[in-house]
Amino acid sequence: MKEKVLIFDTTLRDGEQSPGASLNLQEKVEIARQLEKLNVDIIEAGFPASSPLQFEAVRRVGEESGKTVAALCRAMEHDIKSAHEALRNARYPRIHTFISTSAIHIMGKFSNDRYGKTLAEKQQTILKMAVDAVSYAKTFTDDVEFSAEDAGRTDPAYLAEIIEAVISAGASTVNIPDTTGYTWPSEFGRKIADLKKRVPNIDHAVISVHCHNDLGLAVANTLSSVENGARQAECSINGIGERAGNASLEEIVMALSVRSDLHNFSTGIVTEEIYNTSRMVSSFTGLIVQPNKAIVGDNAFAHESGIHQDGMLKNRHTYEVMTPESVGVPQTTIVLGRHSGKHGLQARLSALGYKVTGAELETVYARFVSLADKKKEIYDDDLRVLMGDELNKLIEPLELDYLHINSGTASIPTATVRIRSKGKTYEESSTGDGPVDACFKAIERALSLGSLLHSYSVRSTTAGRQALGEATVKLNCDDRLFTGRGVSTDIIEASAKAYLQALSLHQNASGNDITTTIENTI
Ligand code: KIV
Ligand code: ZN
Question: Ligand 1 atom closest to Cα of 175?
């Protein structure tokens, strides 16, 4: 019998903290459904006290999911209460509370004298806060996880002391994060082995690890800790997360699976769902997977040189340590087109992880047909983008009704836009440095806004002249960044839609109705 390593997925929490990533509510719910298909053990759905959107995401995922759903919170009553409230209807709620334990964090983050004057005094205050937090969380659920933030750089004796204390207070999982991605695999493995020796009640809790990738060692550190006693791995799809990201789920899982000759561990992951999950996360977050990324990159199973291709034709094991099928990479590209029927579309979407029925299927099919009119061949990635855009429509009170662009090498780029919101329309024109600039300026004029643009990018989702263009616009509104995405075969239209979506998200988050503001300023 193999020993199980629990997979704790933090794509929706730490992953979403990636610079440039932001997910709306519908996207989070959809990813959580896919994580369930992937069969992760725990889904960390967010940090409820940090924003109303995070709260709602945790609430929705908790309500729907048959998996354990974790909510992050600082070691503070207010945060813990908020995590509990967000998880109130979850079938298997987990409260995940954390506090810093390294000297550098304690002296930096708890510098106020009310935590004590010396490091030793502050450490005792932190220990008490950790114990109080776990005890309070236990009043809501038996499933309480404690994380010692920056455990990788924490003094071993103090780490052992605090871990023993939180287990005594009822923590059922103790997480040892390498928050700054500083440790070395053998060193991190020894840290886990050391805790097993030093902490007398360690067997009353599951040891978890959470490794960041600042030195590119997150997966190696995770595997080393498993060899030394960790039985929960915290990780994210495509390795997304703060700074250089978290340990990548697909790499941990496939390393354990492919090298099962070396150890006695297994995970419950349905590996054939890895590729679909990776694509969904990339498409919704806008974080592109590098082509040479292990397991899920476009080149992960591509064989370029003649010698490699020849070897592969004779025996695929010559250059492949796992098959593309084992991680769900499709071997044949199924292309849909204008003659594909509704059922064909539904079946393809279902194979990609999207369950679409009834009225939603009618809407998606109508959009598919209109796309197929513009673009002969519809690839899986087009469908993923279409589905992402469909979800976004649910939060889109500002709609692009009309767009006209005049641009060329010998003319001044000019754009006219008409925007619809709540039955009213707002129309304006503007010139600009280029057609996209003119279009953004026309939107700003129509809605009486100053320039809010923080960044803008555009990419093609598939190859070829008819490829769909996906535009990403980040707006700086009230000191917060709002990310909008738009897709179209016309990149100016995609850009305008992305701009309006970011504004809509801001409107939803702030509760301010932009159109009311316009009426007041006109
Ligand atoms: O990196 C970290 O330490 C974390 C904790 C909150 C688990 O994300
Ligand atoms: Zn982290």
Answer: 7
